[in-house]
What we know:
Strand order of the largest sheet of chain A: 1-2
Protein name (chain B): Branched-chain amino acid ABC transporter permease
InterPro entries (chain B): ABC_transp_permease, LivM-like
Keywords (chain B): Cell membrane, Membrane, Transmembrane, Transmembrane helix
Number of domains of chain A: 1
Pfam families (chain B): BPD_transp_2
Transmembrane segments (chain B): 6-26, 38-59, 85-108, 120-138, 164-182, 219-238, 300-318
Oligomer: heterotrimer
Number of domains of chain B: 1
Amino acid sequence: MIDVLIGAMVWSNLLVLLALGLTMTYITTGVPNFAQASFAIVGSYIALTLLRLIGLNPYLSIPVTFILGGILGLSTYYIALKPLIKRKASIEMLMIATLAWDLILFGIIGAYSEVLSAITKKTETLFVFTSLDFNIYGIPGRLIVSSLLVLLTILGLYLLLYKTKFGIALRASMENPSLAEAMGINVENTRLFSWFLSGALACMAGSVLPYLQEIVPQTGYFIVVSIFAASIVGGLYHIVGALVGGYIIGISESLFTYILSILLGPGVLVYSKVISLLMMIATVLLHPRGITGTEMWRRVERWLNL
Amino acid sequence: MVELITLILFFFALYVIVSLSLNLEFGYGGIPNFGKALSVLTGALVVGGILNRLLIWYFGIEGDFISASSLAAYRMTEIVSQNPLIGLGIFLFCVTMAVVAGAIAGALSILPSAKLKGDYLGVTLLAISEVVYLILFYNTEIVGGYYGVSVPDILAFVPGEYRVYAYTVLALICALLVYLFLEKLLNSPYGRILRGHRENEDLIKAFGRDVMKLRIKTMALGSAIAAIAGVVFVFYSSSVVVNAFNRVEWTFYPFLIVLLGGKGNNKGVVLGAFIFVLLKMLIDFYKFDIKYLLHLPFEAVWLQYIVFGILALLILCYKPEGILKEEPIYTPPIKSRLKTNP
Amino acid sequence: MWKKVLGVGVLILALLMAGCINTGTGQGGTTSEKVIKVGALLDFSGPLSTHGIDTKNNLELAKEDIERYFKEHNMPYRVEILPEDTRLDPNLALQKVQLLRGRGVNLFIGPLSSSEVKTVLPYTLSNKIIVISPSSTALPALIGATSPEQKKYLYRFVASDDLQGEAIASLVADLGIEDVVILYRDDAWGKGLSQETKKNLPNYGVNVRDYIAYPSNPSPADWSPYITKLEEDVKEAINSKGKDKVGVIYIGFEEGATLFSQIPEDSILLNVKWIGSDGIVKSDKLLELKEKTSKVGMYSTIFESEGPQEYINRYRERFGGTPTSYGIISYDALWVLTMAYVETLESEGKYDADVMTEKIKEVIQKYNNGEYGVKPLSGKIVLNEYNDRASGDYAIYMVTEDGWVKAGIWRYETKKVEWLK
């Protein structure tokens, strides 16, 4: 049981990081980014490259993946989205553009995995880092590191958004872009910032992901569903939503499925993704703006004095 | 070369059907149906789940569903090879059932729109479609899941090497009928209300129309049409395997086609489908030569994804409104007025 | 509008024309050389990508050997392999077959999964192409073949599940295990093999305590629910039978490495024997975790193949790692395909599927006898009336500190395990 809990926590932490990026770019640019999961796989491959070529432990490569991920996020915005936004493309068009971008990333990842295999003389698809993981008093490193990453990210975001002038401008332009623009705030900066962070967080999560599961070029296609579920359950209009949603979806995918399997037999276990999807549908139907959009949440927020 | 052209035409026809149905829902009605794959799957479900069970029952075959389907499909194929009319009869029967089943599935899946709209509605439809897909994939009892089930070859009377052409003709006829039907349907007051719904729901309400009813009607129609594509595809491949109905092929690509061709313009969508399938197949076909030409250090398959993605982005970028723009709706009264004072 | 349509039409025509010229000249370097084109329908990006890449590597080695043979015998042929990524999607597999056929390809290796084979099967019959799958093992009825006639152009150089199911059951009994838990990959391959195993186990006096599926599409990120479930079952079994009489049968692919990496060091699961299958035999990924896997043995059955050491060395030097069983089978498949194709051309002057099926029979005999200078890497090839691998022995491999070691053989004739000393 404790293993299930640990596994669920690691997965939730990573989902939070991935969903944060998705929610943020949705708030600033108004487009659900279908390439979000592929960002993570790019991160995994960066970490793998550093591991194979210079023997760097993937945990230590996090700063590198963070920066390269940020650049990836920015280039997504500059190459795939900005030209379209300039031409006043509809939101569906932007969505499809992120899909095309996802396809490009998928092709690049695949081609790169082959180039890397030729160098390392190993098949560089379907890899895991789990055997490299450390262990403190029975707690696996992936839990410690992923929790630390989430904590640092939240702390960093809190300080930035609530304690700096840039943060205030940022929040203003996230909440009401046109008003913010009228006040002389550069909305474009907000977008750049959100795309940088979105890519950076996703790639960072990607370098931890192989500690938990095997990576193949297609992994992004499989996990993107969970990321969307997390962002939507939490509420797409609020950054904190990603945090809440990530934990709910992450925990329900393994822990809730496991509990159901005790009640209904092991056949339920294969339907773990179905369960998170059903949770997402239920949330949206009961409260479209997600958990952070509820009146309850407002009160919690006021109580927290945010 | 003939094979390539046939393949292009066949998938062109299939994507015309699916994309036109999406254009009805999304292009005209403004419903972002990101669960399009579900309606195509419904068509497959009808053939694999209902027709096969009927055949098994008719032939009195014992044993597990998947093996029994193989046998039933085989026996039926034998019969059809002697008797073309039975084959076509089965096809029409399945299309009718698929239309009914598709309409029901579409009508049910749009119910959440009572509370949702825009991207939220889209993502919810996507999730519903994905849930059905996953359940059908892992449960091998319904339509064989990941094993899949065989279905009879309804054109078994055509000699082997010509059968692909026959299916292509069949698909093209279906696509043409769907196109003519939708052109007629949408150049009518219904089409106009639908566009009104896309632009401003409240306006439609103010005119005393039931918005929910309109949406249910539209989705039922759209899904019913897309289900036909599922039926054609399943007979063509002689099997129903659930993984063939994933979200990329049957939801995202149709969206790309509609946006490429021009939202709300059926002609544009047909053109978009043609360009899309042509590009995709040509890249697929010539990728080995490109790889050879450029001396790439990796397999050509990756090149195919990259090139296709870049082309899609370029087209979106240079034609954000689609290849053909939306045209006004010509209902008979408007047409007659245009005639009298041009 | 019509101007645009016209423009697009002209463009398309131009492209197609260019294509015709291109394929026309692309027929191969010198005019006297004939190119034998073989399509390879593999998975490069999904859950079977390691098998897909491995198959491609083995095909490359086979291509070299075959071309050397052609050169030595002054035969004017060349082999061209066209690998495709089907992503295990039957729809894509069929599309790729048709596209490749448009390029004049009539010979195929693959597809890897049984559901793809099922979709491709009717097409092989109506369009007369020869397909050899190196890894689809579902029983013929499950892939839609109810009579040998339907499968006459589709070969599978791997034995179907019933044979290996029995070998595994027999192996489990021979290890002294009385109570097992089966964990299987929920797809056509995993379910087929695990059901055959489950069916055979009671005949060998083994009780199946639990039968657990895990998803295949995608396989789980977090294995802890499965680990916990297995631990509970194993604990109960140990309490009633003692730990020597309890085992876990794992029917899956290399995701097993992820599973093992998540099993805690002190888990009860590492105290019992594990039994695998050809899905993981000689897997490098599982070997990386040998401090855990060697504890449980991972006794895995694989279609008996001598797998000459020099070939394995050659593979390692070139690509790193070891060839998997399916890869070795595809090496043999390419030999049989190309040789039978050449014989067909020599006797008929052109490709003819029906002649070729006859030639394949002859070529298999010659190949078995080593007439081409090599012998089948996967052992003697004998096919049944369904063109599937008919009978044969299974080698049993286990993980030790020194890597994968051959520990015994399951004999088809005696249905017993012979352990090597």
